[in-house]
What does this fold into?
Amino acid sequence: MLTDSGRVEVQEKENTQPVTLLDVAREAGVSPSTVSRILNGTAKVSPDKRKAVETAIATMKFEPNQLAQGLKSGRSMTIGIVVQDIASPFFDETLHGVDDGLKDTGYASVIVSGHWNAAEEAARIKLLLARKVDGIILLSGRIEDKTVLEFSKHRPIVATGRALHSATAIGFKLDNEYGAFLATRHLIELGHRRIAFVSGPVNNSDAMERLAGYRRALQESGIEYEEELVAEGNFHEASGLMAIHHLIETQRQFTAVFAANDLTAYGVRLGLYRKGIRVPEDISLIGFDDLPSSTYTTPPLTTIHQPLYDMGLLATRTLLALISGDEIVNQLPPLELIARETTRRLR
Amino acid sequence: MLTDSGRVEVQEKENTQPVTLLDVAREAGVSPSTVSRILNGTAKVSPDKRKAVETAIATMKFEPNQLAQGLKSGRSMTIGIVVQDIASPFFDETLHGVDDGLKDTGYASVIVSGHWNAAEEAARIKLLLARKVDGIILLSGRIEDKTVLEFSKHRPIVATGRALHSATAIGFKLDNEYGAFLATRHLIELGHRRIAFVSGPVNNSDAMERLAGYRRALQESGIEYEEELVAEGNFHEASGLMAIHHLIETQRQFTAVFAANDLTAYGVRLGLYRKGIRVPEDISLIGFDDLPSSTYTTPPLTTIHQPLYDMGLLATRTLLALISGDEIVNQLPPLELIARETTRRLR
DNA sequence: CTGTTAGCGCATTCAC
DNA sequence: GTGAATGCGCTAACAG
It folds into this structure.
């Protein structure tokens, strides 16, 4: 569009363009390196120059461009987190621990989701690597250990739900078998002998370990394992609901149900309610995970507490140690039974 | 340490150092700019060179350094998300929508938490800005609108839970008042006239709007508002539990309870259970939010569905449109009543 | 103590 | 079409 020559076009430039380190240097009458030194405490600077620079930084509201810092230093001060499902209470707890572990460290986190899909997970990790994250926390997931090890050649990786012990890849695994053993033994100690189990998906190692723990507890008490008392679920509520309906409709006899995780237990609980079966008066019910919400179900759910928060915290600290070369010592607390109100002694 | 001269020290360098665009260019026998052009489709390149470059990229497993790209282009291809609590089902749902909105866009997200603290929120936003995110999604929060507007001069911001309409800052607000009105009216239509309300914190605008909706519904039905039937909660389960105990112990008479959100309703439900009061036989209960877990409470919770997922999706699309300068048209679906099994007609 | 210089890896003029 | 040159903003030698 033509405008009269000589007319000044007033451009309302709302977008304040960022002030750079060079701007600060000019303003303070020093060299850029001096500003950098003050920023990073790399070397001593005379008090007067320091003063000048600091006021310049304050008045100009200078914030160093982290992209540039990262490009230069090779460290982006961000770590990547791979979860499988962003909206899952299970990962939430762990993320909470991660969040706290990162507090005041200067690190931020890029969270991506693998959606329980090995190919997608690998793609996400590549994405994180391309973004030059300084390390990766991999929460559960389906990619193979050797793939993880391969990726860890680029950046350190701390994983949960798998055992890894290389110099750049460490894994933490909770003892699912033991937890399931605890849960089942609790029911047995309450006098139950016919204990149904709603399992997780058969292609999931956590799920299979929990099944193993259930079987061991039965065996140690001389109770025969009956396949008919086991129904497969998928760790979600709906599967618990369906499984318990199936168990009831096929006339299985049992006085207690062990659900492979809390969500499944919620579904079982609802299924029993629909059939007019009371918990714990008629049937005892125990879960696994101890999600925060399990404190407030009606009635509050007896379950196995997994230190998910601690695992997130530990994973984060371990990763930071791996990055900085520090030693790591922390220990994960053991799984434990939380006896609430869905289990009771068999009369 | 001294070693014999001439002896070759085999250094096991596990850390594969990344291959750069320059490496690719050399390998393919072209100039770096040609590689760049192919990467970005910026200009036409002869088929043979393109071929050579592409094979070089594949064999060398080249991944462009996003930090460098970002520094150069000024766009980091990441957006910042400010939540208040990483482990909250409320934010989860919205994040799920954000996650889907970002799918296949090339954008990744860095998630930070403001912990319901204005100062921390501001600090986090500054951090995101320093990281050169291309835009920010602010989910709820306590910082003032004018602060948001100020920040939006640097990067576009889309916020939820507040109304904003500038060129670089857009806000979406759900109609809390209307939702609360719906909930209360539902109870009234079922014949209830003495309806207790467990509110959210008084310093929270969502909470106050829900209270207003409750009052309007009462008023439109000619039911007098009684302050004694309102107990303050804080949106968490424990507060629902305490509130209902208080209501019962102070001998308030009511046949239904409206809890300001689902978590509070869970607490109320448990409190009623503890007193031997059945839901919905003795008391009707309604929540607000429609968290995923409310489908599987026992009994399933009647509640007000908020389109949290859609809001996350819409916020993301809007932000991307703001970034790219596109037009945005999407509309948020209205709040609606989900009648499940915790409410019933008063006999 | 401090300024000058030279890149980090890439995209983008500008010439050819 | 393609290569050479330049710079994004910052840090880290290197001299003084």
